[in-house]
Amino acid sequence: MKIIKSCLYVCFVWISVITTSDLQVAIQAQQTQKIPIGIVYVGKKNSAGKGIIERLQKDIQYSGQCQVAVRYVSSIKKTSELKKLFSDEVNLAIFISSEDSQYVWRLYDLLMIDMIQAGKVAKKNQSNQLIAHRLADQVWPALMGTQGSFCSKVAYCKQIWKRKFNHEKPYKQIWIADFDGSNPKLFIDIPTVSLAPRWGNNESCPLLFYSENTLSNVQLVMSNMFHKRQVMCCFDGLNMQPTFSADGKEVVFCLSKDGSSQLYHSYVDALSKKRKCERLTHNDGNNIAPCFIDQDHVAFVCDAQTRRPQIYIMNIATRSMKKITDGGYCACPAYCPINNKLAYSKMVDGAMQLFEYNCSTRYHRQLTQGYGSKEEPSWSACGNYIIFGMNEGLQSRIAQLNILTGKMRYITPSGDHCTYPSCSPVYQEHIGILA
Amino acid sequence: MLRWLQSDQLKSLFRLNKRQQFFLQLCVFVLFGHFIVAILFSCLYQGYHDHEKFMVSSKYQSATLVLCPLKKRINLNQKNQKQTAIKDSKVIDYQAYQKQLAEQKEKLLAKKSEVKSAEQKIVKAQTKKDIKKEPVIKNKQKPELKIVDVEVASKKEVQAQNLPAQAAKKVPESKKEEVVKKELVEEKAAEEVLQNQMNLQDVEFVGYEQLDSLMIERLIQQAVQTFFKPPVGIAKDISCEVLVDVSKDGRASLAKVVRSSGIVAYDTSARAALYKTEFPKEVWNKTISIVLGQ
Fold first, then answer.
1. Which of A134, A376, A392, B257 is the most exposed place for a label (fewest CB within 10 A)?
2. Does the distance separating the beta carbons of A144 and B272 come in below 8 Å?
3. What ipTM did this prediction achieve?
4. pLDDT tens, A164-184?
């Protein structure tokens, strides 16, 4: 009888399972909001902890996608206490605690009281700001599914006026600031014009390349983060704008020793194992602002064919050139490997505007509008921001465009004349001026 | 097989004779067979089991839905399967649809016949002109006479047009207002008729089961959309699928992410919205799968 009963019971359960119909509904969001997120510092409240939490709050809120609330608690004994820390609106919380030589973070889902992800950042005599940036860089991908670039730096030129022989002379210094323009530090301060800084892409060894005006030419100089400088290239004319391949072994740069500016390719020869330099472009126009797209292709600006600068993509191996822009005055291409897009400036109604070119779909899109010329774009390491120089009349400031929200903000003060911004990659170690 | 049924203990327990014993054996055998078949069926069917899908194209948001009451469901186009549910579509019966279709056809035919007759008139007039033109070439004085005739006719027409205007001048102002009011009412009625007219070119045929599910989907959408607010700046192709157990009181007792969007903040906002939602009665005590997209 027991067997019959159990058989009948199983049949009943199976039938009940089969008869319950599940429905599938598709719903589209009609409105968006800033996601409320909580940050909880667990432990004794001290100035270091407070500094880190405040900076982390700013970092998480920076993109305009999150609204962060902060709480300080001495300890948490039960998981049920987690829900009581915030209002019902907050469903995600980051718990940060200080242990011996590291800060530990845990991302919690407050709906289910479930830990999603955890990580740690070593203290290693790093500044509170840097620790906060490192925490943000680790938390952001877990939270939003995209890379963070909170540890990256922005290098830019700042024009100053100095009195020399009873004359006011303009000089250009190079400054390095955090990704949001905060914490600016003077990096190159020599009595000349230093311009067009570009970061090396070797993540383990941060280097900055820039050009210096001398009495006879504009030479290409390299500097490490301890202000040690070395001249890289010193031909007649301009020696400018180096771009590095993904592996860092190949360099393309501009030289104007033969009259007009031409592109040159420096690489290590496989046979002789010696560094060689070859001229890439052979035309009577100016070829400037190169940037590597991949190991074989370089985007650059050339005005040889149309007498108006246009953006071309060159295959380094075959030397074949392909024009990707039409009409107008196009300049300053910058490539982002994360989204496979090329940002550039184009003259529209008398002002330079930012455009993006999708290398996979070959589709151009205008990113900015309105007055003011937007020039020299540079992608952030995460691919979510473009920083650029914004010229309005005599003023020039560095601005940042959020690609996700379309919002623009200035990252340098209004009184300063700043140009040539360049975003660094996220370096593994922050040494020298980066620390 | 089933030897345990022939045991003495069982016989003594039920006190069965041979015939009864045989029927018991038969019943148990049939039940056991059914059980085996059912398990096999469920195992095989698991692979093919699919959720009931409502997804209707956003293209058909203002389309006319024609209910075919004798059919459960009619296969929608593949395009429609991808997209979102209807919002403001109008539902009509199949008979009403056919009536309206017939009316429209009649109107079209009438228009065509009018056009044809007009064309015929034009052709006749042209042929007459051609016929008249031939003697004109021979006799050059006739056209002058004709022009005079046309001028006279045009003058007459102008006078005829001016007559009602002159009459209107004589009509008192109170009557004028009445006329204007009547015209306004007529215009409004015409607009209402136009609004009520179904868009018969953009028609989607649905079975009664489909219509029911569409209605339920609409209710669920309305309920969830008020609470679902994903983060700003997320890519438009992002979506996540959540399996929701709706309890007896219409609240979500469990919301489990089946297919993640890859963004924790997005998935959490979707789940939070579903926990806040009060679901329509039609899905109480059921499990529903909800795809939340941008």
1. A392
2. no
3. 0.84
4. 788 888 899 999 999 999 999
